[in-house]
Backbone:
């Protein structure tokens, strides 16, 4: 012992560090002093008894010893000196003990490690796995010394491992990790040296669990994570390394088994924790969560390269599916509804998602398949894995469908029951996740067995196998599945119907045991739903709500309700009517429910006693109503804050996941939870299932939602907008993954889609200007994803007053964006900018088709329209280089929308998009949108609007090629398109007025400007020798539009055609009158324009005239056009005469109209002609003047002058004068006609007949039918007195040279009704000489048959005889009375008529003989006998 210790108190020996510190502080006196000190230290060490204590003291050597270490060579030199000193001591001690130095040093170091693990913390080593700070420092120094010994060959690693395991209960897991990381001894060596594989695996598993429990709460969380990661990495690499690599590394065979055992034990621990339902705060839950997060997923893939993670994941999935298989197939069938993804334990779903990162969908499904085929499985975890696959992997749907198809084919080929069971369980499990992810079970069952192509249709054996399988399932089946099987049974041949009947009976018995009745199923119950069956009363309330909604939309009682009242009487009377007739306080104004009840009562579908009881109960409820309560609303239940709170919490968790929105598995899992909470929030309605109807019914004009439904939809829409803001703050749209598409599928569920679209209608159409920038951005992105899913969404059926009956969802959203006011146009610009920008960024890395498919063409066109209108810079050509960045920025607020829109407009990608035909804003599209503008609320002033119109028409669209939506520089094309769009706009608004409160008055001004430009461009006349013009474009437009309309005689078609004609006339009246005439020269024929106007009048306008008179405006417009043509002619008088002469032949109704309006027309014509030409009127105009003067003189004086020529014009003037005069002495005046020409009298009779028919067809007119009939009678008697034939008027055709032109004066309806006028004059010609003429019978019979046909066709219904008229007139104008009288007359007259009058009866009755058999028999009986065959009179030759 050192002499320095003799003066210290007993038991107070100085430590090695103190001794060295004292030595180190003394100055060196000579170069040889260091060697002497070393020798003395060796002697001192050799004399010590406790070498292990010596090692610990060496490891704790303080700074005093190291104070001069830099000068002495640094830490490495220090370690070398310590190793030399300690090694000498150990060798001496080993020599003394007679053991190897390496063995002694290993034993000493192992004892030091155990001693360090046992000291420090108060807890026992078995309760912790980590070292504290002091233990880490001591262990580091000890390992430093051990490494020095190892470097000098004085340390046995194998012996060291054995010594450690002898005290394994005292070891801490971190100590082993530090031995491995500091390269003293590897973990592989440690584990290989343990004599018992099971024991070491158990010890490691126990310590790993302790480590996982302490990871989150440990002060040194980073150290804990590193320890756990290294152990997992080593276990995975060791347990799943390829054999070739094993041989190359020279690894023993024991280590892989230990690694696998540990990994399996840890997985079993986690699965047991899941099965036990541990709470989140428990230590077991924390440990399992920590282990699952490290041993799978991106963490493990980041630690290990190569195929080892994939093989490990495959093995782990197999272990999950097969561990502790306690459930049978029957348990799975019975409890499967409780195993959806959202109801699965979070630990297990997290584990699945981690494994899905490491394996492809095909590999995952292969593992599931192999486990099912080769081992007993835990069905809950197998089916939970199927749900996770469907939710987390988008490609899993098709893979599962293909697998199920193979299973079904195999099952029916060899009656393989296991394949059948697996297929049914997999389909039902996948269907639990909703139709957005997998088809419903009902749809799959119908597709698989509902047709002749089903799996069961191959043979009787297959049928027996199917029904045997279904029958075996019955005791365990859910009621919903049994309902599917009963209501949508497999298609079975008639000879095997007994198999189906037996199964149906068995299934109904099972439903009865479950107290579920097929008869009490709801009218609108969704069989595809996977949820529980609602109680009949609850389902009836849902049926009532649905039926009232359908009734409100269609105005008719739903067919489903009518059928239920007949075929499902028990449910209808026992549940539906009581739910419908629930007493309530009725509102003052009948609501849709009251209207529906009243409609059912009127058709006898509500018993009177039940209705009386209902009304009485409602009256009683009103008496009990509190004063401050509102009628029409019952006491509503609470808003069920708990389901809404759960949904709100799930949405909050989803928003938290937006930190990394590209993690599909995390986001999809949370979206599945949202869907589950959504089903509860919408209870008792079912959210799962396919759409029951092909279209979504929506009232776009007054969209309404129930309060509860609006709360849910608002939560979801707000969440979508918030998620988008959060996700965009971390990543641009193209790197946000598929979260938005998954969320959109949730909004597109069967029940929620109508509510979502209704709320979008409210927001976009009615509240758009009040939405903030985040709302606009979010809703625009939602619209893009709805467009992405357009093929899977039903069409939207709009209200009855909407322009279109039904639209796809993207087009429906586009229709909600109005452009009529400045506010709405600005919102449209915002929304379109956000939507296009988002789609441009979102699909930038995909093909153009993917981008184009998600955008509505109408939305892109409205963006162009709004940009052109509101941003003048956009009217210049965009820069060639799109230097501006993408305008999408969800984080920069407030958003400068106009700047963002202009930036988007200049994008090269957008300009490429606009080259596509379907997205290009054409001239027609621009006009349609411009007509919507309301000038009073327009963002542009009148001057700015006019400038914009001029730019759009003359600078953009007129010179643009037609392929690009322009007019090819053709003014006529520009005018043609404008007229068509203008007329379409007026028709869609149900108005024939132009220039109303909307922007069409400005567009109409542009049409007038274009028409003038076109007229100036075409020139005033056709040069000699050139072909005449093809006519004005306007008539071609009118002709094509009228040809598309039906020309049937029903009222609707007639009114539609009349409205179209009124529009045509309005267009003509707003354009220069020269369009009606064109340019005429004296030496040229009537121009094409005039011919086309004549054709329009004769074919269309004439049929909607008032008798023989066109309206005043079009008549005046024609003569204004005539004056214009004369002004541009060298011979104006000759031009006027030529035109009016052509009118006599081709369009006589113009002249009769001029005569009708002559009192107001004459002053204008005389003044204009005199001012322009300083001359009297042309000859043809003077003829009209003279004819009108003749008529006036005839009525005003006793002696009348002779009528001017042509006679029919004078007759028309006289008829007009008689009609307008309305004098009672008209009959007396007509007696003076005896001296007039025959043509005048016959023409006057024709015009009078037309006047008589007009009084019947227009009962509210000013003309008196009695006077009109009296005038006709007087003229008829005058004709009879003079012996002038008049029967030809009733057989008149246009080919008749004399009076055929008269048919072009009257409407076609009037000429068809001539038989009515003929027999209305029966009392006046019954005894007339004309009746005895041979031609009379033919005319009378022909008129009778035509009158009968008119009656059968319903055309006589247009004849109205008001009750205020005399009985005589009612009988004369009543078609039935006239028909009866005509028939009686013919039956009396035919036997008396000459035989020669019946010579052509067969021709007369051809095709009409059976119209009146009695009249036909009478006619045929008067037919003269033909000369018989002489052979008939010869004697027969009998022999």
Residues:
């Amino acid at each position: 012992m050192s002499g320095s210790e003799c003066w210290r108190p007993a038991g107070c020996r100085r430590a090695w560090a103190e001794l060295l510190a004292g030595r180190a502080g003394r100055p060196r006196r000579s170069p040889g002093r260091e060697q002497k000190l070393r020798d003395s230290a060796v002697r001192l060490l050799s004399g010590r008894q406790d070498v292990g204590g010596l090692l610990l003291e060496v490891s704790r050597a303080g700074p005093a010893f190291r104070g001069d270490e830099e000068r002495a060579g640094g830490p490495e030199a220090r370690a070398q000196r310590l190793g030399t000193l300690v090694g000498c001591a150990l060798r001496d001690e080993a020599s003394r003990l007679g053991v190897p130095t390496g063995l002694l040093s290993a034993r000493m170091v192992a004892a030091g490690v155990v001693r360090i693990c046992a000291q420090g913390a108060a807890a026992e080593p078995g309760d912790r796995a980590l070292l504290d700070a002091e233990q880490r420092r001591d262990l580091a120094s000890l390992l430093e010394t051990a490494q020095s010994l190892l470097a000098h060959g004085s340390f046995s690693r194998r012996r060291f491992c054995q010594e450690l395991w002898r005290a394994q209960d005292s070891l801490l897991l971190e100590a082993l990790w530090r031995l491995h990381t500091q390269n003293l001894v590897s973990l592989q060596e440690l584990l290989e040296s343990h004599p018992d594989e099971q024991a070491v695996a158990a010890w490691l598993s126990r310590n790993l669990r302790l480590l996982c429990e302490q990871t989150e709460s440990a002060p040194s969380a980073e150290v804990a994570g590193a320890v756990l990661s290294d152990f997992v990495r080593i276990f995975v690499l060791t347990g799943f390394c390829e054999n070739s690599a094993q041989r190359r590394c020279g690894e023993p065979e024991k280590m892989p088994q230990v690694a696998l055992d540990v990994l399996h034990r840890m997985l079993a621990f986690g699965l047991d924790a899941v099965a036990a339902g541990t709470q989140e705060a428990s230590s077991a839950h924390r440990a399992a969560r920590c282990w699952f997060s490290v041993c799978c997923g991106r963490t493990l893939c980041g630690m290990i390269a190569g195929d080892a993670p994939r093989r490990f994941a495959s093995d782990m999935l197999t272990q999950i599916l097969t561990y502790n298989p306690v459930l049978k197939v029957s348990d799975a069938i019975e409890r499967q509804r409780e195993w959806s993804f959202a109801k699965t334990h979070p630990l297990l779903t997290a584990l699945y998602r981690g494994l899905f990162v490491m394996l492809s969908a095909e590999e995952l499904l292969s593992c599931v398949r192999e486990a099912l085929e080769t081992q007993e499985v835990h069905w809950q975890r197998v089916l939970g894995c199927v749900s996770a696959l469907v939710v987390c992997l988008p490609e899993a749907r098709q893979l599962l469908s293909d697998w199920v198809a193979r299973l079904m084919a195999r099952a029916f080929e060899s009656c393989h029951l296991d394949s059948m069971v697996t297929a049914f369980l997999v389909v039902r499990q996948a269907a639990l996740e909703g139709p957005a992810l997998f088809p419903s079970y009902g749809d799959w069952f119908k597709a698989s067995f509902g047709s002749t192509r089903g799996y069961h249709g191959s043979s009787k054996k297959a049928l027996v196998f199917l029904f045997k399988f279904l029958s075996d399932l019955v005791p365990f089946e859910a009621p919903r599945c049994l309902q599917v099987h009963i209501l949508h049974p497999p298609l079975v041949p008639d000879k095997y119907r007994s198999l189906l009947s037996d199964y149906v009976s068995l299934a109904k018995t099972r439903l009865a045991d479950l107290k579920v009745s097929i008869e009490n199923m709801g009218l609108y119950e969704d069989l595809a739903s996977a949820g529980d069956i609602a109680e009949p009363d609850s389902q009836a309330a849902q049926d009532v709500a649905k039926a009232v909604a359908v009734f409100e939309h269609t105005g008719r009682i739903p067919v489903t309700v009518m059928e239920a009242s007949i075929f499902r009487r028990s449910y209808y009377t026992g549940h539906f009517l009581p739910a419908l007739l629930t007493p309530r306080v009725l509102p003052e104004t009948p609501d849709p429910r009251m209207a529906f009840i009243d409609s059912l009562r009127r058709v006898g579908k509500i018993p009177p006693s039940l209705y009386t009881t209902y009304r009485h109960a409602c009256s009683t409820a009103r008496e009990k109503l509190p004063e401050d309560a509102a009628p029409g609303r019952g006491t509503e239940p609470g808003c069920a804050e708990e389901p809404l709170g759960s949904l709100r919490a799930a949405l909050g968790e989803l928003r938290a996941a937006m930190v990394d929105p590209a993690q599909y598995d995390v986001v999809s899992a949370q979206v599945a939870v949202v869907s589950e909470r959504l089903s509860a929030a919408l209870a008792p309605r079912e959210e799962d299932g396919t759409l029951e109807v092909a279209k979504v019914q929506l009232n776009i004009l007054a969209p309404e939602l129930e309060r509860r439904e609006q709360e849910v939809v608002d939560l979801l829409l707000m969440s979508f907008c918030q998620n988008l803001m959060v996700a965009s703050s971390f990543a641009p749209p193209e790197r946000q993954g598929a979260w938005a598409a998954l969320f959109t599928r949730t909004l597109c569920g069967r029940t929620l889609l109508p509510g979502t679209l209704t709320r979008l209608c409210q927001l976009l159409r009615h509240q758009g200007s009040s939405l903030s920038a985040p709302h606009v951005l979010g809703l625009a992105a939602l619209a893009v994803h709805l467009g992405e899913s357009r093929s899977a969404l039903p069409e939207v059926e709009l209200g009855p007053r909407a322009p279109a009956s039904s639209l796809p969802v993207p087009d429906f959203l586009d229709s909600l964006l109005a452009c009529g006011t400045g506010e709405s146009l600005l919102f449209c610009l915002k929304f379109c900018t956000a939507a296009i920008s988002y789609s441009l960024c979102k699909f930038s890395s995909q093909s153009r088709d993917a981008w184009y498919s998600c955008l509505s063409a109408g939305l892109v066109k409205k963006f162009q329209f709004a940009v052109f209108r509101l941003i003048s810079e956009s009217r210049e050509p965009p820069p060639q280089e799109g230097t501006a960045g993408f305008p999408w920025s969800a984080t920069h607020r407030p958003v400068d929308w106009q700047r963002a829109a202009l930036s988007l407009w200049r994008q090269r990608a957008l300009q490429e998009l606009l080259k596509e035909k379907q997205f290009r804003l054409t001239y027609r599209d621009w006009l349609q949108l411009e007509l919507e503008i309301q000038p009073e609320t327009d963002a542009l002033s009148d001057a700015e609007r006019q400038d914009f119109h001029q730019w759009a028409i003359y600078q953009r669209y007129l010179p643009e090629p037609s392929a690009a939506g322009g007019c090819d520089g053709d003014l006529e094309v520009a005018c043609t398109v404008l007229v068509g769009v203008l007329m379409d706009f007026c028709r869609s608004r149900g108005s024939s007025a132009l220039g109303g409160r909307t922007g069409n008055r400005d567009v109409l001004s542009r049409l007038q400007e274009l028409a003038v430009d076109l007229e100036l461009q075409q020139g005033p006349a056709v040069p000699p020798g050139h072909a005449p013009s093809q006519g004005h474009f306007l008539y071609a437009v009118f002709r094509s539009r009228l040809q598309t309309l039906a020309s049937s005689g029903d009222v609707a078609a007639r009114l539609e055609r009349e409205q179209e004609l009124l529009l045509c006339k309005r267009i003509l009246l707003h354009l220069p009158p020269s369009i009606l005439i064109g340019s005429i020269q004296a030496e040229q024929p009537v121009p094409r324009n005039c011919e086309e106007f004549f054709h329009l009048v004769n074919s269309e306008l004439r049929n909607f005239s008032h008798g023989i008179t066109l309206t005043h405006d079009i008549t005046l417009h024609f003569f204004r056009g005539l004056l214009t043509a004369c002004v541009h002619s060298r011979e104006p008088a000759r031009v006027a005469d030529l035109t009016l002469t052509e009118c006599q032949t081709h369009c006589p109704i113009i002249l009769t109209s001029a005569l009708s309006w002559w009192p107001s027309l004459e002053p204008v014509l005389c003044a204009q002609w005199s001012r322009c030409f300083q001359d009297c009127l042309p000859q043809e105009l003077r003829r009209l003047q003279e004819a009108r003067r003749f008529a006036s003189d005839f009525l005003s004086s006793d002696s009348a002058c002779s009528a001017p020529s042509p006679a029919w014009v004078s007759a028309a003037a006289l008829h007009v004068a008689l009609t307008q005069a309305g004098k009672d002495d008209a009959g007396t005046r007509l007696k003076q006609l005896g001296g007039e020409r025959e043509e005048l009298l016959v023409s006057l009779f024709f015009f009078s007949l037309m006047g008589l028919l007009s009084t019947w067809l227009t009962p509210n007119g000013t003309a008196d039918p009695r006077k009109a009939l009296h005038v006709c009678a007087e003229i008829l008697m005058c004709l009879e007195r003079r012996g002038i034939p008049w029967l030809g008027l009733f057989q008149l055709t246009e080919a008749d040279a004399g009076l055929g032109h008269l048919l072009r004066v009257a409407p076609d309806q009037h000429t068809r009704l001539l038989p009515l006028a003929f027999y209305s004059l029966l009392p006046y010609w019954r005894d007339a000489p004309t009746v005895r003429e041979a031609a009379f019978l033919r005319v009378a019979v022909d008129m009778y048959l035509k009158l009968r046909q008119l009656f059968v066709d319903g055309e006589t219904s247009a004849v109205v005889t008001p009750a205020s008229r005399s009985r005589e007139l009612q009988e004369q104008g009543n078609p039935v009375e006239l028909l009866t009288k005509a028939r009686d007359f013919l039956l009396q007259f035919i036997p008396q008529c000459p035989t020669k009058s019946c010579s052509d009866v067969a021709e007369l009755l051809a095709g009409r003989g059976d119209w009146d058999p009695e009249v036909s028999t009478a006619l045929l009986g008067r037919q003269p006998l033909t000369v018989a065959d002489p052979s008939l009179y010869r004697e027969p030759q009998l022999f």
